[in-house]
Amino acid sequence: MSEEPEEKKSLYQRFRLYIHIAIVLLYTGYMIAAWILHGKKTLVASLLWAFVSLKIMFYHVPTTILTKPLGWFFSNLIAFAMRFPSKVRWIVSVVFTVGLIVGVTLGLPVHEGQGTLVDRVRSLAGLFVFVLVLYATSTDRKRIRWATVLSGLLLQYLLGLFILKTSVGYDIFHWISHMCTTLLEFSNSGFAFIVGDKVAAMGTFATGVLPAVLFFAAIVKIVLMNTSGAESTVAAASPFVGMGESSLLVLPFLETMTKSEIHSTMTSGFATISGSVLVGFISMGVNPQPLVTSCVMSVPCGMLISKMRYPEDGEPVTKGKVRIPPAAEEECNFLHAASNGAAQGIHLVLLIAATVLAFMSLLALVNAFLTWFGSFINIDHLTLQLVMGYIYVPFIWFVGVAQKDVLVVSRLMATKTFVNEFVAFGELTTPAVADALTARSKHVAVYCLCGFANFGSIGIQIGSLGSMAPSRRQDLAELSFSAMLCGTMSTLMSAAIAGMLM
Q1: Would residue 400 be called left, alpha or beta, if left means φ above 0 and alpha means ψ between -120 and 50 degrees?
Q2: HSE-up of 434 (CA within 13 Å, CB side)?
Q3: How many CB atoms lie within 10 A of CB 204?
Q4: Rounded distance, CA 354 to CA 445, Å?
Q5: What is any Pfam family matched here (predicted)?
Q6: Using CA atoms, how far apart are residues 369 and 87, in angstroms rounded to an integer?
Q7: Which of 180, 326, 410, 415 suits a disulfide with 392, CB 3.0-4.6 Å?
């Protein structure tokens, strides 16, 4: 029986080691020149160089040289902790987390014009009130994993501290957001070629959001042939690329996700904004620092809120070792992958547009009915936004907004929920509102408004996820409203933490 001839290796495969060494040496030489010429300004570029160099190194060196020592350290640390009774571990975890948050919040100096210590205490109380509200409204309180809640709160607080109180933290995450925005803006080139520069520059939902989704669908098909860690991947990507685009990263797993994972995926989309939208808000005159900080803080916050509201009761496919579901068709090269991604993106874009149209039209119908109904008792312009503005008042008070500004910020939140975040930020930046608010209120209001949690976004989520996982449309419709509320709560908790650190 003759043996099959070995597959002939390509030129790159035969000389891969030498090619990689050349790339690292050239890149290192480039970075040395950059360090000499620009010094401290090269921090972000240096981190990128370190990441690329390590990535190339691990093509040739087993990752166990790092994972084994780290695994040994953490396994011994866990083994030491496990010697103590579970009640002792639980008490120590709670005392450490709460003590750190309370101690740092009350210990930081209060700067003039950024509120008082009483305002900070109000924000601190609000954080714990929001956790209690989530516990009270959980679908299964017995299944809440408090270790996840504590670690999520601690991580969110430390991220806020790192970004708000250090220039290094802000620079790193601002650069990541800027790079993702730049990537998505390349979709304008293809769109302008088809419809012309004037139409492409109109800045509407159809000309701004939909081409970016279509372009990103093609990029994902080219770059990500394999993927894992579904809900964590979506959570991490959402602040940079947006709701519909981030879900494309976990496309192979959408059909097999548990309901808790779907809820978490949707919450992550509602809890933050995308890099492209971030640039739009900055161009409107919104302070970029709270925008970037809120985007990053919402990653752990959205996860912990979702896991409190809808705890996991199944076994996620992407937990631990992951088996990638086989693709229906395997792309032979990047052109094939790009065309398949674009075809998939067209279907996604049409469903998003149709669902948003239906949701916004229904909202206008309900508001028209309420206005007509209110006219009989002399209540002019009775709308869902007006009603919700008063419902938000206690939440905004607990966030730590200056007391005289609570109603104004509450109405901005209502506008964001029932119209969208663009209109809300537009109102915030008008002289009539901006000049009336204190510096603290304006800063905290940005955190409150920095998210896609509105009824139009429900349409986007159901349309995008439903097109990628048709069998889960019923679950998506069932979970969408809860996920939107969790996304809103995430921005409020981020705002409370920002208020604690001011």
Answers
A1: left
A2: 13
A3: 9
A4: 31
A5: Nucleos_tra2_N
A6: 55
A7: 410
User: For residues 387 and 410, is the Cβ–Cβ distance under 8 A?
Assistant: no
- Give the integer Cα–Cα distance in Å for 160 and 126: 16
Q: Tokens 């090619």 correspond to what residue?
A: 19
Measured distance CA(450)–CA(272) in Å, rounded: 6
Q: Which two tokens stand for residue 398?
A: 């607990």
Sign for the pseudo-dihedral over CA of 234, 237, 238, 239: positive
As a whole number of angstroms, the distance between CA 468 and CA 370 comes to 36
Which regions in the chain score pLDDT beneath 50? 1-2, 4, 222-229, 231-232
For Cα atoms 281, 283, 287, give the angle at the middle one, nearest 5 degrees: 60
What confidence score (pLDDT) does residue 339 get?
A: 64
- Would you state the structure tokens that stand for residue 78, as one six-digit string? 């866990």
Residue range 348-370, pLDDT digits in tens: 566 656 666 776 777 788 888 88
Burial of 41 (0-12, 13-18, 19+ CB in 10 A): exposed
Count Cβ atoms within 10 A of the Cβ of residue 290 and give its class: 0-12 exposed, 13-18 middle, 19 or more buried: buried
What is the pTM assigned to this prediction?
Answer: 0.72
Measured between alpha carbons, how far is 375 from 367 in angstroms, rounded to an integer?
12
Residue 271 CA to residue 494 CA, distance in Å, equals 10
Contacts 24+ apart (CB under 8 A), 275-278: 275/177, 275/178, 275/179, 275/180, 275/181, 275/184, 275/239, 275/240, 275/241, 275/242, 276/180, 276/181, 276/184, 276/185, 276/208, 276/212, 276/242, 277/242, 277/421, 278/177, 278/181
C-alpha distances in Å from residue 401, one per residue of 285, 441, 447, 453: 20, 5, 11, 20
> What count of other Cβ atoms lies within 10 Å of the Cβ of residue 373?
11
CA nearest neighbour of 243 among 218, 195, 279, 210:
210
For residue 48, the surrounding DSSP H or E stretch is helix 43-57
Q: Name the DSSP letter for residue 378.
A: T
- The structure tokens listed for 113 are 């014009």
Q: Who's near 145: CB < 8 A, 6+ residues apart?
A: 307, 311, 312
Answer yes or no: are the C-beta atoms of 500 and 400 closer than 8 Å: yes
Helix (H, G, I), strand (E, B) or coil at 153: helix
| Residue appearing with tokens 């086989």 | 326
Q: What is the pLDDT of residue 237?
A: 53
